[in-house]
Write a structure and sequence with these properties.
five-stranded antiparallel beta sheet, alpha+beta, 44% helix, 767 residues, 2-enoyl-CoA Hydratase, Chain A, domain 1, single chain, globular, Pdz3 Domain
Length: 767
Amino acid sequence: MSNLLPTLLFLFVQESSASLDDLLGEVADMRPAAVLNLADRSELLYEDGWQDAAVEVLAEASPNQKLLIARLLTQSGDLRGGPILLGMLDEEREPSLAALATIKLGTFDADEKVMDGIVDYIGGLIPEDDAELYCEACLTLSSVGDGANRRAALRYLQRTRESADERTRRQGALALGRTRAVLTADVVELLEEMANGFGSEAAIAASLLDQQEQRERFRSKLEAIERARIEGAEARAEGQAISPDDVEMLETILEMVRDQHMEGEKFSREELIAAAADGMLKVVDPYSTHFTGEEYGEFWFDLNPEYGGIGAYVRTTDGVFTIVRPIYSGPAFEAGLLSGDKVLSVDGWSTADQPDDEIIKRLKGPPGTAVGLEVFRDGWAEPREYQLGRRKIELPVLQAEMLPDGVLYLELISFTVDCGRLVAGAIRDAQEQGDLRGVVLDLRNNPGGSLEQAVAICDVFLDRGKLVVTTRARIGEVERHATRKSALVDEGIPLTVLINEYSASASEIVAGAMSVHGRATTIGERTHGKGSVQVMRRLPGLPDERYMDGNRNRIKDEWEEYEDRNENGQYDFGPRVKLTVAYYFLPDGSTIHTQRDREGRVTEKGGVQPDETVEFWRYEPIVLRELDRLIEKGAFRDYAENLITEDIDSTIELAEYDGRDVSRYEGWADFYVSLETFLDEDVARQWVRRAIRNSVEVSDQRGRVFPGGGFRGDFQEDPQLEAAIRRIMILAGRDTLAVPEYAAAFGGKEKTAAASELSDGGSEENG
């Protein structure tokens, strides 16, 4: 350990401390820009628990070490990097530029102390002393500050226009162009003069002028639309008839519906206007839509699926509030609560005959607070009391399973906040447990989500600086999104990505980028073809209700106080419009977006075509009808439940792997005869095993659910997963059939190949 690091660091971060120690030792003679590069490539960014210990060493750290720690903290979203960076602004030029570049990352957007610190710093600078540093400080304030700070930044930059120093004026003109503000004639003239020269400044000036011209054209369009609106209003005021392109027509139709339609009185004005807005957007493209405040609240929670509570899926069953299944990383399961437990009271308040929403509201609360439950379980003589500590609960979006011979299977359900870190953590855990021969990333049925998290997933597998996706907007704006860190997984470890027709958006970006760069083999079926960028726009004058952001995470948490403007007893979001503003393009320049004409007909098919097409098997219609009959009787479920009751540990072994051997199932011969069916024994075995894997008792015993769904994610029954495993074994130089589990699973009966999967539709036992 370095003598700069106290023993406390070792106790806090253990293995990650050695990594931090090495980093601190490396930066001694580096330029600040190299320090930032080193921090951005650090594997510490994939880990938790090192931040507190890193802050402990700041008092004895050198300037470069402080910069390293501040950059790491900022990249991980820790606001404690702010004071360090402000302190560096009084140092030499290069550390100051590095500090400003780090503040620009966006972590401190709502940190008033950091913004005030930058304002004070700019106030002490003289533009002519170092025009580049002065302008970078102003641009930092403009890019991360609020409206008042952005206006202040523009005022500071205006000083450069009045300077007698040509270099200062030129740097100021470039900076003003980068703010996207409306440029004055003298600034435009100076940029035109610079664009006629040579070198990087000329190229930047030309690009800024082009962007300014595009914005002016767009502004002219908006002004024309506004003039037309005003002229239409004036015409209506003079009693002129409305026309089909007049928005007054919508108001007329609305009144007709409310006054004359047989069902008109059932709908509020707000509902009808929302329906009209949604219809307008749906005409433009399938992905643009209007959200009421309630709909947006649900959408927002899907993207940020975490809350403070006990960690359990719950609902009233047979008149009693019941834990359907605990979240296996949450307080309820850790305290011993299981699926089927009945919650009779919460903090002494009876749950009998109470609505689920009200009970759930009482279960939730600030992390760290306690809640008391009275619980009854079948077989107990009387209820028992549990005292649980609420925690911030993250709904699982990643399921991981280590398959035979070191193949890690990862099912990513959606691209929600922090899923990149979760994937990295699962891989790190697998590496620590032993040999990792390959990774299967399952993106089937994944509808997408955050573009930032799509890039974060690619960061795990692709080296720094690899282009992931480009977005191109209607008005010519182009954004390139590339990886920012060194790959966590060595290129020598094979990767396969599973996709199907329900893989969309961010799923297609990840699969396409991995394939284009040759890092992964994509397997399955052509993806959905949703390659467009949607942004959420607020509607002016219809804001969210205000709330007290106690933990400064910029998210309305359940327990935080708010202003109940309409006095309805719940927090209300304002309505939103989700608008398509750009298209995605893969690193090879291809688009994944399916193009349609105005009638909705496909004119150009999008999506990602897999490197290896493998369809999912399905049963013949006659087999399906017979399965429906047996499922309706509960035959498979009842037999599976008997096995679980008799010996749950042995039954779990069958769920994980049974070698397609029906003799391993207790009482199989009698069970099969009782079915009175023409079905092959192997088909019956499949459905018994499926019922076992879906059982909540099995999940409770394992402390986690099986990944996938139905037969998907089960290496014994899933042909696409089988193909992925075979590919990994070939690339790893392994013999698939030398692994007993794979030999038994892949050497079994062949199934009918087809494009659809029964396991995700139709009849199903046990949910």
